Amino acid sequence: xxxxxxxxxxxxxxxxxxxxxxxxxxxxxxxxxxxxxxxxxxxxxxxxxxxxxxxxxxxxxxxxxxxxxxxxxxxxxxxxxxxxxxxxxxxxxxxxxxxxxxxxxxxxxxxxxxxxxxxxxxxxxxxxxxxxxxxxxxxxxxxxxxxxxxxxxxxxxxxxxxxxxxxxxxxxxxxxxxxxxxxxxxxxxxxxxxxxxxxxxxxxxxxxxxxxxxxxxxxxxxxxxxxxxxxxxxxxxxxxxxxxxxxxxxxxxxxxxxxxxxxxxxxxxxxxxxxxxxxxxxxxxxxxxxxxxxxxxxxxxxxxxxxxxxxxxxxxxxxxxxxxxxxxxxxxxxxxxxxxxxxxxxxxxxxxxxxxxxxxxxxxxxxxxxxxxxxxxxxxxxxxxxxxxxxxxxxxxxxxxxxxxxxxxxxxxxxxxxxxxxxxxxxxxxxxxxxxxxxxxxxxxxxxxxxxxxxxxxxxxxxxxxxxxxxxxxxxxxxxxxxxxxxxxxxxxxxxxxxxxxxxxxxxxxxxxxxxxxxxxxxxxxxxxxxxxxxxxxxxxxxxxxxxxxxxxxxxxxxxxxxxxxxxxxxxxxxxxxxxxxxxxxxxxxxxxxxxxxxxxxxxxxxxxxxxxxxxxxxxxxxxxxxxxxxxxxxxxxxxxxxxxxxxxxxxxxxxxxxxxxxxxxxxxxxxxxxxxxxxxxxxxxxxxx
Length: 690
Prior knowledge:
Layout: H1 2-8, H2 22-30, H3 34-44, E1 47-51, H4 62-66, H5 71-80, E2 85-99, H6 102-115, E3 121-124, E4 129-135, E5 156-166, E6 173-177, E7 187-188, H7 190-199, H8 215-219, H9 223-234, H10 242-255, H11 260-270, H12 279-288, H13 299-308, H14 313-318, H15 358-364, E8 370-372, E9 376-377, E10 381-386, H16 392-406, E11 414-418, H17 423-436, E12 439-442, H18 453-462, E13 470-474, H19 485-500, E14 504-510, H20 528-532, E15 535-545, E16 550-559, E17 567-573, H21 580-585, E18 588-590, H22 592-619, H23 625-636, H24 640-649, E19 660-664, E20 670-674
Parallel strand pairs: 4-7, 10-14, 10-15, 11-12, 11-13, 13-14
Antiparallel strand pairs: 1-2, 2-4, 2-5, 3-4, 3-6, 8-9, 15-16, 16-17, 17-18, 19-20
């Protein structure tokens, strides 16, 4: 009960009176967006840096950005990229304590009270609070992080070359601000810093660790020593938090003299964690470690962490070199007759079985999330076919912008490959890409060539860089010959491998000039793309309204895997001189009720000439079905079958939706008559063909 009381007191760590300061009033009064926030924090004394919206990912490279950082540079960047959040490089003079849970916040408040230090800058985060301090001269500290799930009471520590997100960025707001600049922040003494590290179960940074010769190093790389290291390591969760993970790696590196055997142990252990990427990532970290550091991490680190995880360390360390291994066994009935051929022949398919690999594959599978609203899913290949000027590029960019803004899609992993545009069109779209933070590639720029695309994709597959990457191909015919089956097959094989490793591909392609027998658009090329991609859509025009200067289009699904829409519609403006960014803003989703009305209007427009001819002939005395069909077909230049279909389509007694009815005369003959239109419905609608 006592612990629960402590936690409930941490719902707000800031006294109400601290929000009455001049600094806080100034912030509330003038800071309305990230441009204002960036300018404020730069003047405050922080080295601000732009971040992709809703993420901790820098939108620029650190060092070139920090070189010559001044108010003009900051203003120009955020003025051109208002969606970017604000972060800062903490530096050696500042330290930030990050409490991500009620337990860790309670611990931080207790430590602050014990050492008599109150923060003058507190930021509210989605999970907890950031407390900012100025480091006292001569203090020793380094960044430290933990897994909140495993250690809910521990605090993350940010200093040096660490990055922290600042208000008014996504999910960040000021709770308390009484220091007018960074130099006026409360001072974090060495006593305070040490207390936080000790609370986290770390050695106090002010107390250097003793350098002791390793018994394991003296022994050499014996099998027994390696087995003990491996057992200690396997007792520790590889998802224990980056700093703990790194300390384990450093300890094994020291004890094995950076050997290949040590690398194998570390890779096998890390592979069991959810955060494992690939062996290359482990090798890079392993080879970056120095063998001759003054205060190395040793096997003592592994022993301490294994014991904390509940392992029987004494049994591991005191076990003899010779160990029995559990082997497979079979109970044999003495009365059984031995088979004539005791040699088991391996099934050739056994070498390809995935049994036991579910954990590995799970790491590559993407969660079912939309890249393009209702149309394209993460971890799938989607192709969208449309005639020229239907709006496929416009709609894809609109939906991509929406996903980045509303769903937290990481724009830095989006690559829009634009190889079907003019220089002016490319520039317009590049401005949009820069504003939203996604990448744009174009033929001939920075030596990019569409014909080398498959080589680049293959490299991503081989190096394990495919997961989470989203690629738009505009248009598909620039990357493969859609008319050649062999070329399409080679292309889709690479795309399938890329998708299986967690990548996403959205390709835009053209339809044939002539529609199919049913009047619908038909995709261009062989069927291999549709057959081998996960999803396929036809985008077609439903209605062009000349009066409203608006076009309505519909995505119709022709193949699906996963929870995507069977059809979805959008409208956008048709103004000739409208700017592209304004055109993007004009896109609106059309609901089913309005779509039905648009389709009915479109049908009437397409049937208009035949309707007029039929009404004219009925009024002129030609009123039997087959004669009407023959005469109106010749007049409107359509087939008799189509004329007959329209006669039947508009036959009925409701003048709001029908045009004529009939009465049965002698011998069953049907005589047609034109219906009187209700007020507001002209007999023959004025129709302008597009």
